[in-house]
Specification:
By secondary structure, this protein is of the alpha/beta class. The protein folds into 2 domains: 2-174, 3-Layer(aba) Sandwich (Rossmann fold), CATH 3.40.50.1970; 177-359, Dehydroquinate synthase-like, alpha domain. The protein is built from 14 helices and 11 strands. The structure holds nicotinamide-adenine-dinucleotide. Nicotinamide-adenine-dinucleotide binds next to helix 4, helix 5 and helix 6.
Length: 360
């Protein structure tokens, strides 16, 4: 088992454990004080048949009572209607402030369970048991929780840190290839914004990663958690550095919305990353060769680098209604070099349109 500690003001706030089973989950639950408390496991309809029983049995060895709430899998259900049903369940089961929510699943489950935990009784503790690559390297860490509202992605939410993140990397075996690749978009992003050596390692290990060899996955998830964990420790509420994690997300979120959420989040981030890399190239920061290399890396993991039938003007318009706007300006993350990203608030509409030209 590998462990990363996440701190705030020099005080540990939670551990992230990477393991090859759920064998140590019970002892980790005891360590954080779950003994004698109630647990509500929130999971989706795909993950429940795979892992709910095993996790519920382990929780039952520690908690005074274990209940579960299963929702229909998919981004379309990351909404306030499902949150209301979770509140109802918690009220019926008489949950109080000292009880726990456990999020078992991908980013949709983690975001929604985390938001329910952040708001029920003004906040109860929650535990992340992420089961997708995207949730293991990204969404389970850092305390961003929330739901979509109408067609606006993550429009309603709260910062609420987990009490524990425990990932059984073997759960990735049951994940389908498309979901694994979508998670790789965030992994490649970590290398691009923070660590060029890591980016090179990703490129040169595509086969072992795609074959889901345990050592390769463990190295990748550990390195990505270190990068994401480091950023959120230094800037927990996105007042500066954390915005760098939005590389590829400005255009990515707009594409996601315009495609009516038919493309996976990571696939849209891949496209957005190509646009951001193209802008970085057009402004003279990275070379044409580096731009092509970045494009090839996304393609190594079968991620889309081109999209047809979308009007660039519509994408631009959608970026302006994104919540990542800053004082009326689109906040764009660009690359100075591979491994070194920065925030640009001064891009003109034409510069953004030209960048998008690279993926349309
Ligand atoms: P997801 O939760 O929808 O999971 C993807 C699919 O895989 C679902 O169908 C799910 O049922 C299935 N699944 C999950 N684990 C499985 C397993 N082990 N085996 C088989 N199937 C499995 O999506 P995701 O890609 O994990 O997360 C995307 C969400 O995360 C988006 O809503 C996005 O906004 C959010 N997100 C949040 C943050 C954050 O900081 N909070 C960061 C990035 C993304």
């Amino acid at each position: 088992m590998k462990t990363i500690e996440i701190h705030n003001n020099n005080k540990k706030i939670y551990d992230i454990h990477l393991d090859d089973s759920y064998d140590h989950l019970g002892e980790k639950l005891k360590e954080i004080g779950v003994s004698g408390r109630k647990i509500c496991i929130i999971t989706d309809s795909h993950v429940a048949p795979l892992y709910l029983k095993e996790v519920a049995d382990i929780c039952a060895g520690v908690a005074s009572k274990v209940v579960h709430f299963v929702f229909e899998a998919g981004e379309a259900n990351k909404n306030l209607t499902v949150i209301e049903k979770i509140y109802e369940k918690l009220i019926i089961e008489k949950f109080d402030r000292k009880d726990y929510i456990v999020a078992l699943g991908g980013g949709v489950t983690g975001d929604m369970a985390g938001y329910a935990a952040a708001t029920f009784l003004r906040g109860i503790d929650f535990i992340q048991l992420p089961t997708t690559l995207l949730s293991q390297v990204d969404s389970s860490i850092g305390g961003k929780t929330g739901v979509d509202f109408q067609q606006y992605k993550n429009m309603v939410g709260a910062f609420h840190q987990p009490a524990l993140v425990y990932m059984n990397l073997k759960t990735l075996i049951s994940l389908d290839d498309r979901e694994l690749c979508a998670g790789m978009a965030e992994v490649i992003k970590h290398g691009l914004i923070k660590d060029s050596d890591y980016y090179t390692w990703i490129k040169t290990h595509s086969e072992t990663i795609m074959n889901r060899e345990y050592e390769a996955l463990e190295h990748l998830i550990y390195e990505s958690c270190l990068i994401k964990g480091g950023v959120v420790e230094r800037d927990p509420k996105e007042q500066g550095e954390r915005a760098l994690l939005n590389f590829g997300h400005t255009v990515g979120h707009s594409v996601e919305k315009l495609m009516d959420f038919k493309w996976l989040h990571g696939e849209c981030v891949a496209l957005g990353s190509i646009a951001a890399a193209a802008i970085s190239r057009n402004k003279g920061f990275i070379t044409e060769e580096t731009f092509e290399d970045i494009k090839n890396t996304f393609e190594l993991f079968h991620l889309p680098t081109k999209i047809e039938h979308l009007d660039p003007e519509n994408i631009l318009l959608a970026t302006k209604s994104d919540k990542k706007m800053d004082g009326g300006k689109v906040k764009f993350i660009l690359l100075r070099t591979v491994g070194n990203a920065f925030i640009d608030r001064e891009l003109s509409d034409q510069e953004i349109l030209d960048g998008m030209g690279a993926c349309l």
